[in-house]
Amino acid sequence: MDDHVGLEDLTRRSLHELLKVGHELDLEDDRGTEALTAQLRQVRDEFVQLRMHYQFGIDEVQTKVNILRQEFEQVHDYSPIEHVRTRLKSVESLVEKAVRTGGEMTIPAIRERIHDIAGIRITCSFVSDAYWIADMLSRQPDLTVLTVKDYIDRPKPNGYRSLHLIVEVPVFLSEHTEKVPVELQIRTIAMDFWASVEHKLSYKYRKQLPAHLSAELEDAARAADALDQRMERMREEIRPMSDRSSRGPGTIASR
Q1: What is the pLDDT of residue 174?
Q2: What is the DSSP letter of 77?
């Protein structure tokens, strides 16, 4: 279902309830209802605009990734980018996280504390490619790296491994420029497979995994890591490292 339609439906249902309450209270005039209607319309419009700006941010960064991908596929004999997926938080997920993280429920406050509204996931074959891709993107002059979380070098306790960057990209609108943060998740195919299974299990068990499944996942994470290390050793047989070899852990700096 389209999220904008969902938000409009929610607004209409809220208005219906407000009108019902107003009728039951036998209000003398409809000024209070009109004011509430205007407030709900404003909230709806602000959320629609917020998601529009973040979608534009995704489009800008995705274009950069696609240019790199096409360059490598057409000019070079090897491309470090296997798959690219994008994600824009739904209104429901955004509101839920805004409530869970606390703070004011205003659009500026939500933007200030939630940085994964827009996301791009890049899948590659080798661990070193993850750092290489991050380095290529971070060197682009109109991208600003805000934060780096290296869960490849320092995995999460449950075994999750991925390279996370929050980058800020300018979006040029008709009357002003909007700086939009976009989360980049860069990981190998093995890391992505593990993360996908872990997400499905966590969703099924509402993040309360049975002990035996947690143990299985931790063991699978170790196996995925071993596979990545083995593939990295075999990389030289596929493509010799050039002078542009990818960076290692901890070398991508925010600025």
Answers
A1: 95
A2: S
- The answer to whether 163 touches 145, Cβ cutoff 8 Å, is no
- Averaged pLDDT score across all residues of the chain: 84
Helical H runs in the chain? 3-24, 31-75, 91-101, 107-113, 127-138, 189-204, 211-238
Per-residue pLDDT at 255: 53
- Cα(145)–Cα(255) distance, integer angstroms: 6
- Domain hosting 145: range is 3-189
* Residue 79 counted as domain residue: yes
Given the residues 183, 216, 218, 236, the one annotated as active site: 183
CA distances from 104 to 37, 50, 194, 216 (A): 21, 16, 35, 40
Residue 58 three-state SS: helix
Say how many domains are in the chain.
1
In this predicted structure, what is the pLDDT of residue 119?
A: 97
Give the type of residue at 11: T
Enumerate residues 6+ apart whose C-beta is below 8 A from 185.
119, 120, 121, 122, 162, 163, 164
Active site residue 183: yes
> Mind listing the pLDDT tens digit for each residue in 64-116?
999 999 999 999 878 999 999 999 998 888 888 888 888 887 888 889 999 99
Residue 74 identity: Q
Is pTM beyond 0.90? Reply is no
User: Which amino acid would we find at residue 179?
Assistant: K
**What phi, psi does 124 have (nearest 5°)?**
-130, 175
Neighbours of 187 (CB within 10 A): 25
Is residue 236, in this structure, part of any structural domain at all? no
208 located within any domain: no
| 232 belongs to a structural domain | no
Question: What's the pLDDT score for residue 1?
Answer: 40
